# Entry
Amino acid sequence: MALFPCSVHGSRFRGPASHFYVFVSRDDSTTRSHVRLCMQDAAGMAELLDEQFAEVSSDETVPYPEIDSCLGCHMPIEDRHGVVIVTGYVKGADKKQWMAVLHSHCGLPSWLASVHERGLQAA
Ligand SMILES: [Zn+2]
Ligand SMILES: [Zn+2]
# Structure
């Protein structure tokens, strides 16, 4: 049994944990969370990240991806914005990193906001 509850379904689980580190940088604040997920929710999370975020190359000489729409409202985004970076260690897979940008007044999508919130408390 895992020591910590899954940040998505909220209770302890059997099998290995996968770890995601969420970094949200805004004009006035930076928050970081450590999200622990069961295998099933980790797969779901990686799928949502693949869909809605841009993947950051593991090759450090490759610049960050150019992103021109907001993760929160999907509208075009101008120069000044917040950044969300998620680093994922899914059990059995290579480390992967994703990035998105946000207007300063836009919130995280609900699927990410709830786990980020839980991860803050457990960080
Ligand atoms: Zn779970
Ligand atoms: Zn927005």
In short: The chain has two helices and five strands. Helices lie at 39-52, 110-122.
